TrEMBL record:
Domain of life: Eukaryota
Keyword Protein transport appears in the UniProt entry: no
SMART domains attached to this UniProt entry: TPR
Keywords, in A-Z order: Repeat, TPR repeat
Organism for this UniProt entry: Caenorhabditis auriculariae
InterPro entries: TPR-like_helical_dom_sf, TPR_rpt, Ycf3
UniProt region (Disordered), positions on chain: 1-79, 379-440
Compositional bias segments (type: Basic and acidic residues): 34-46, 413-440
TPR repeats mapped onto the chain: 300-333
Protein name per UniProt: Uncharacterized protein
Length: 456
């Protein structure tokens, strides 16, 4: 009896242990399911947030509720028809600015998207007795589209024109019918200046051949921490566009501002130096230019200004050095190459005066490597002729000397020195004789004056 009770008790204990283990496993499973559901919920929330932002961005490009663009387009609001979220009518260029779209396909899309009541900005191409022909530029409301590159010509009949227009006028035109297409000038619409066109259209004109990545990198608003937090992107994430955790120099937290300040200070000092140079105070100007270059060695205008100052002072070697440095730092500088050419031509003329034809030729050739110049071409021709003439007139004795031994050359040089010494002595003797003759003539003159006085 006692054995049976002990057996049943142990069985109950084992059953309790099993029950507790099952309960713990079910609790862990429920916790795991809850954490998984929370992560899925956060992912859905992040995805929903990105989707909403994308929908808002696309809504700014095309929406049936965008009001007419009056004044600054930044004040215009549009309503997303699906969720009634207001988004700004952004100044960003339309998508066709960066996408290579076939012109014919874009023209068909323009015809398909056209609606009665649309308002376009157009430019008048020509006028005749039947009416006017205009080129559409962009939409004034509803759609953000660049239409100028389509090169369309829309007819405006004379009957629908309530005012006189002239070529190149920019006017608003309304769509009266789509099938067939029919357009008319907006009632009482006056000519519009180019700076009154929508901002997105004017921004697209400035981009020319800019790629989208370059455009995005230059936009200051893409580095907005608030936008990153709204999109659910961490500021220190590798996917963040923010500069601060990745590219900014920690030792210099405001490097871009510091660079602008340095350039402004350097520009002010250079302008002061130029004023001193124009007033004739070359030494003060040189001190200012040297100070700018020592503090801001990357400021190109300082080298150009100092080179121009050296050129004015006749120090062509230093002028050439500074101007070549400026061209090396900025090959397309507008003034550096011009000043360098003038310096090299002046430098070549000084070598011509010294009859150093080889150096003069080198300077003229350097000018022609930078730019074709009539003065350099003429000077090079003259110098080359003189070099050839000197080669032809070279004495045979000089060629023989080149073939002699070192001992013979030394002897010849000694003889030359002796000849020069003899010539100098002869010149000295002639000068002394001339001096004695002048002294004798002076005394004779004095005697003649003395005797003339006695006769009186």
């Amino acid at each position: 009896m006692g054995r049976k009770s002990r057996t049943s008790k142990s069985t109950d204990d084992e059953e309790n242990v099993r029950r507790r283990s099952r309960s713990e496993r079910s609790d862990r499973r429920r916790r795991s399911d809850r954490s998984r559901s929370r992560s899925k919920s956060s992912e859905k929330k992040s995805t929903w947030r990105l989707t909403e932002m994308a929908r808002s961005l696309f809504a700014s490009s095309s929406s049936s509720k965008i009001p007419e663009a009056e004044g600054s387009s930044q004040d215009i609001q549009t309503v997303d028809p699906e969720d009634n979220v207001y988004v700004p009518f952004t100044p960003f260029p339309p998508f066709e600015t960066f996408v290579d779209v076939d012109r014919e396909s874009a023209r068909r899309k323009f015809e398909e998207e056209s609606r009665v009541g649309d308002v376009l900005y157009v430019k008048v191409l020509r006028c005749d007795v039947a009416g006017a022909y205009v080129k559409p530029l962009c939409y004034a409301k509803r759609l953000k589209r660049d239409l100028e590159w389509l090169r369309l010509e829309l007819p405006i009949l004379q009957a629908s024109m309530d005012r006189r227009v002239k070529i190149d006028d920019i006017i608003r035109v309304g769509v009266l019918s789509t099938n067939p297409p029919k357009y008319a000038f907006a009632q009482g619409a006056a000519s519009v200046a180019e700076n009154e066109l929508p901002e997105f259209f004017r921004e697209a004109r400035k981009l020319e051949d800019t790629k989208f990545r370059e455009f995005a990198n230059e936009r200051p608003d893409r580095c907005n921490p608030y936008l990153a937090s709204q999109l659910g992107v961490s500021e220190i994430s590798l996917h963040s566009f923010l500069f601060s955790p990745h590219t900014e120099d920690i030792s210099e937290p405001a490097s871009s501002i510091r660079k602008k300040q340095d350039n402004l200070m350097a520009e002010n000092d250079v302008n002061r130096g130029i004023s001193e140079m124009k007033s004739g105070n070359s030494k003060a100007a040189l001190v200012l230019f040297d100070d700018v270059i020592s503090k801001f060695p990357e400021f190109v205008d300082a080298y150009v200004s100092r080179g121009a100052l050296h050129w004015n002072m006749g120090d062509y070697w230093r002028a050439e050095r500074d101007l070549k440095k400026a061209i090396e730092m900025q090959p397309d500088h507008p003034n550096a190459k011009t000043y360098l050419i003038e310096t090299l031509i002046s430098y070549a003329k000084t070598f011509e005066v010294k009859e150093d034809w080889e150096e003069a030729k080198a300077k003229y050739e350097s000018v022609l490597r930078h730019r074709e110049d009539r003065r350099a071409r003429s000077g090079l021709k003259t110098v080359s002729e003189k070099i050839e003439r000197r080669k032809r007139n070279r004495s045979p004795s000089a060629e023989i000397v080149g073939e002699m031994s070192a001992k013979d050359r030394k002897k010849i040089r000694a003889e030359d020195r002796e000849k020069r010494r003899s010539a100098q002595e002869r010149e000295r003797e002639l000068a002394e004789r001339e001096k004695e003759r002048a002294e004798r003539n002076r005394r004779i003159g004095e005697f003649e004056k003395f005797f003339a006085g006695l006769r009186k």
